Here is the input.
Amino acid sequence: MRTQVGIIGAGPAGLLLSHLLHLRGIDSVVLELRGREQIESTIRAGVLEQGTMDALAEAGVGDRMKTEGALHHGFELAFEGKRRRIDLTGLTGKSITVYAQHEVLKDLVAARVAADGKIFFNVSNTSIHGIESDTPSIRFTHEDEEHELYCDYVIGCDGSQGVSRASIPAALRRDYERVFPFGWFGILVEAPPTSDELIYARHDRGFALVSTRSQTVQRMYFQCDPKDRVENWTDDRIWAELHARVDSLEGHEVVEGRIFQKNIVGMRSFVSTTMQHGRLFLAGDAAHIVPPTGAKGLNLAVWDVRVLTAALVAFYEESRTDLLDAYSETALRRIWRAGQFSYWMTRMMHRLDDASPFEQRLQIAELEHVTTSRAAATAMAENYVGAVAV
Ligand code: RFL
Ligand code: PHB
Here is the structure.
């Protein structure tokens, strides 16, 4: 089997890359470990930056996002019983859209299928070969048969647990990591929205986030022990915790409903440098992870893909390799910016058991600052909407 670009992973990075390349006449094949139903139903991100919306619209997969997604012009920071608004649009001229990641995936898979794109679902034993030569390949098993896909370039979009990153020799790679001693307990709830905008709450009991999916389904999270178990949390205990952390002194309360999904995720910051070696390039979570507090993970994956698409188009249309050579350096500038913002927001909003009472009190001073100083609020808003110069 042969193609121009072999892509491992049908997450947002792999599927969007495949579709953007197709629109420029470049052929690709996507290999995915899981089944189509599984990727289309896994609950993950929800916040899309303007740049991500633009990229999806340019790829011709933005129609449902525009009609079903909700445009948000600000969010609220809750602390000390108060709620203060960050006016994203007023401060930056930009907004964000709340539209679930698995809906983005449904739109991308539908577009690939409609264009006769090649996606192999349920593959196993994926391995990468010959990246230091001009004829790399990917070996994999599909429906009990072994295959070898020959290509010009291999793109590893296989997320944090994939095989691609390890194909770059360890001696050439430097990994940077910070594992946080807390996680997020996430729920999906059948209820009307608690608020028109997202609420990020800092409380001595721990962080909480009120997000949304639609007028009838809400997404909420609260800080927990990453080793805790979902079974330890009855619905009553969850609501008591959310009320304690989010309800305000002005009488705003979290709206309860039927909880139909619960999960716990750990949190870490991670950056792998370099993101390329020979004919292998990494994009998205395969190369970097941010804690979800800044809502940056999916947006960074889309950013990598835009940079990589431009570089591959320059190679195929003009035989230029300068953009490919510069890929890692170009992508990492934005990754470190988003990594710093996500880390900062995580440290400001979560209960830090490793911090002194003095440092914990500084969190409130910082929240007062970003919610009263226009300059500080603008810096936060620019990072949140992704309007940062890198
Ligand atoms: P993905 O989505 O993990 O896709 C990788 C795909 O590769 C497949 N795979 C393999 N395929 C073939 N062979 C192998 N050996 C393979 N190994 C793995 C996997 O099955 C999978 O389908 O990576 P990608 O495309 O880089 O996309 C990254 C995003 O999914 C991720 O950054 C976001 O979900 C992070 N994130 C958020 N990002 C945002 O921008 N805004 C948010 O609001 C936001 N909220 C979140 C989040 C992540 C969360 N969790 C679960 C950590 C909220 C949460 C709770
Ligand atoms: C979500 O709705 O899943 C969500 C929103 C904001 C975040 C993280 C996740 O920062």
